[in-house]
Design goal:
The structure holds two protein chains of two kinds. Chain A is 72% helix and 3% strand. In chain A, α9 packs across α11. Chain B has a single domain, classed as ABC transporter involved in vitamin B12 uptake, BtuC (Orthogonal Bundle), CATH 1.10.3470. Chain B is built from eleven helices and two strands; from the N terminus they run ααααββααααααα. The chains are: A mainly alpha, B mainly alpha. Chains A and B meet through α6, α12 and α14 of A and α4, α9 and α11 of B.
């Protein structure tokens, strides 16, 4: 098991760029697939499946933001706004035109991608701080437009009720059924991202991140690729929004406000910028954190806090821990959870002869 | 509908006064950016936490106003000094994204910490000024707006003088220009970094005091931070006079939007028109009215 790299030599670039450079990778992926698609739904209860569902949806959004932030180096504080674009697009299509999910899902993504490309346009001229603020503005403007346009947002409290997704005439309503709706999409998103970042486009993104002027000099059309990065990232966000809408059964802009954008930024930072595994780690971690805090406070915290204030204190604890973790990771381990995992892996890679 | 001058003038005066109060918050942001190149997304939260501490000291522990102001002043100075030392200093030279995220993390901590320590209810800060509005010809002003505007003008003028003339201010400008050259000239760069953050904390306290009196103290006060960005982008990120002009523009635009647009589109334009204006500014003149253009080299 631990001598897994011995005896495998790469002689071509193709071998080096392969999705599974080592046979162990295939085994690992196959076992994870079996674990999540067969064992989990059989063993786990509805509650735990719902946690996996929410985490899996967050993974898609985190992947999208990481493509923009980690691979292309363009910051966006408006990620949640693109989710709301996807969500409302899908909700309108599903409610008014009775579209099935396999149309609304890509349609929501494409709509978000179009809006994302428009929002990304300032990146042609500005970067860093200015881009951060421009995307922050986009967050507010999209939110306001959705809230004040009844034609899009349905009128009553700017929310639209979403029908449950239907596959082969079967309506998916329970957590276990939604699990089989969400998980394949997440798996698809992961594979698509892995392929994207090792392609020509992905390499161009990385070149722009590392030094955009140099990238332009070696012949990369910086503007086009920046817009492409915004579009792809927003596509993921749009799909995430549609998944949330199907999952919760309602499209509402309040579920996609600024704090959610910050949650996703935190996922990328905590998980690790410019890493797919990092996005997954980050999304799972950020999803589990409030649940862990709630469990902790309900078992231990009740001795210190009055029951009336418990919900409030949990929300405040979450903010504090969240902010603290972001700062902690930025100062102590800028490469995030992914780096910690790499360290563990590298230790065992040559174990027990670590010299 | 015929044009009503009375209404228009009222909107403009209120806009101007509010705008000056925005400048007071935004100047903390500019101060930090000017001297350390760091972007502080937590300026609104600094104001909020200062105001929450002051109000809580008064209402929970019965401190007199000036004692609690002084206590919080000391707390802010110590905290910001430590903050620079522990969090911001390791971030020097890291990408912009990292610094932005670090200050967002800080903002989240403040938002949680304030209510956790002192409870989430809204408290007033009562400054010793009258409450009756001042009516002066066609003008109609509340004393707190006026006081806020006066404090803003005094401090902005003070900062202008400070950066242009005083020894520390000149050193801070030098540090902002180039860390290495300032070091070579014998300026203790790290000390001025810490100083900038401490100064921003003091400004935040003032902002929190004025705004806390105007709209009451709770976590909503942190929304002020979001007003800072249009102000600094319009005015220019590294210019004190730009902050004043940017603040005035944002104040007036907000007031006019609230007065003339809200009846047609159903409210909320106040929060969103400054951002539209800012987007336009970013398209046309990203470095702002008074900012200096950035020239980039490899």
């Amino acid at each position: 098991m631990f001598y897994r790299e011995s005896g495998f030599y790469k002689t071509t670039y193709q071998a080096d760029m392969a999705l599974f450079p080592l046979p162990t990778g295939k085994v690992a992926v196959a076992s994870f697939a079996i674990l999540f698609f067969l064992i989990c739904p059989l063993v786990l209860s509805e509650y735990y499946l719902s946690i996996i569902n929410i985490a899996a949806i967050a993974v898609v959004g985190a992947l999208g933001l990481n493509i923009l932030l980690g691979y292309t180096g363009q910051i966006s504080i408006g990620h949640a706004a693109f989710m709301s674009v996807g969500a409302y697009t899908a909700a309108n299509l599903a409610v008014h035109f009775q579209m099935p999910f396999w149309i609304t899902l890509p349609a929501g993504g494409l709509m978000a991608a179009a809006i994302g490309a428009i929002v990304g346009m300032p990146s042609l001229r500005v970067k860093g701080l200015y881009l951060a603020i421009a995307t922050l503005a986009a967050q507010f403007i999209i939110e306001w437009v959705l809230n004040h346009t009844p034609a899009i947002s349905g009128g009553v409290q700017a929310s639209i009720e979403m029908p449950r997704p239907v596959i082969f005439g079967k309506t998916l309503a329970t957590q276990a059924e939604l699990y089989f709706f969400i998980l394949p999409i997440t798996a698809l998103a992961i594979v698509a991202t892995m392929n994207l970042v090792r392609s020509r486009i992905g390499r161009a993104f990385i070149a722009i991140r590392d030094q955009d002027i140099a990238a332009e000099i070696i012949g990369i059309n910086v503007y086009r690729y920046k817009l492409l990065a915004f579009a792809i990232s927003s596509f993921y966000a749009g799909v995430t929004g549609v998944m949330y809408t199907y999952y919760f059964g309602i499209a509402n802009y309040e579920a996609f406000q600024l704090p959610i954008s910050i949650d996703y930024l935190a996922m990328c930072i905590i998980g690790g910028l410019g890493s797919i595994l990092g996005s997954i780690f980050g999304a799972v971690f950020v999803t589990l954190l409030p649940i862990a805090i709630r469990v902790f406070m309900e078992t231990v915290g009740v001795y210190f806090v009055d029951g009336v204030y418990l919900a409030q204190v949990i929300a405040q604890m979450r903010l504090i821990l969240f902010g603290g973790l972001i700062i902690f990771f930025l100062v102590v381990e800028p490469e995030g959870l992914n780096k910690l995992w790499q360290n563990i892996r590298n230790y065992f890679r040559v174990w027990p002869f670590s010299y | 509908m015929e044009f009503e001058w009375q209404f228009f003038i009222e909107l403009i005066t209120n806009g101007l006064l509010t705008g000056l109060m925005y400048s007071l918050v935004a100047v903390g942001f500019v101060l930090i950016y000017k001297s350390t190149d760091a972007i502080n997304f937590a300026q609104g939260e600094f104001c909020m936490i200062a105001a929450i501490f002051i109000a809580s000291f008064i209402y929970l522990y019965g401190f007199p106003l000036w004692v609690s102001i002084l206590t919080v002043l000391v707390l802010m100075v110590v905290f910001n000094w430590g903050l620079e030392r522990v969090v911001l200093r390791p971030m020097i030279g890291r990408p912009v994204v990292s610094i932005i995220m670090a200050t967002i993390g800080l903002a989240l901590i403040f938002r949680g910490l304030g209510p956790l320590l002192f409870g989430a209810e809204t408290r007033p800060i009562e400054l010793p000024i009258p409450n009756e509005p001042i009516i002066w010809g066609p003008l109609f002003m509340t004393p707190i707006d006026l006081l806020g505007a006066v404090i803003s003008i005094l401090f902005l003028a003070g900062f202008g003088w400070f950066f242009l003339k005083s020894r520390i201010g000149v050193a801070m400008r030098a540090v902002a220009d180039s860390h290495q050259v300032s070091m070579a000239m014998g300026i203790n760069v790290e000390r001025y970094f810490a100083f900038a953050w401490v100064l921003a904390g003091v400004v935040a306290l003032l902002g929190g005091l004025v705004w806390g009196n105007a709209i009451g103290v709770d976590t909503q006060l942190a929304q002020l931070g979001l007003k800072v960005f249009p102000v600094v982008i319009l005015g220019g990120l590294d210019s004190i006079i730009g902050v004043v002009v940017g603040g005035l523009i944002v104040g007036i635009v907000e007031a006019l939007a609230a007065g003339y647009l809200d009846p047609f589109v159903g409210g909320g334009t106040k929060d969103f028109t400054p951002y539209v204006l800012m987007i336009l500014a970013l398209m046309i003149r990203p470095y702002g009215i008074f900012g200096k253009p950035i020239i980039e080299r490899i």
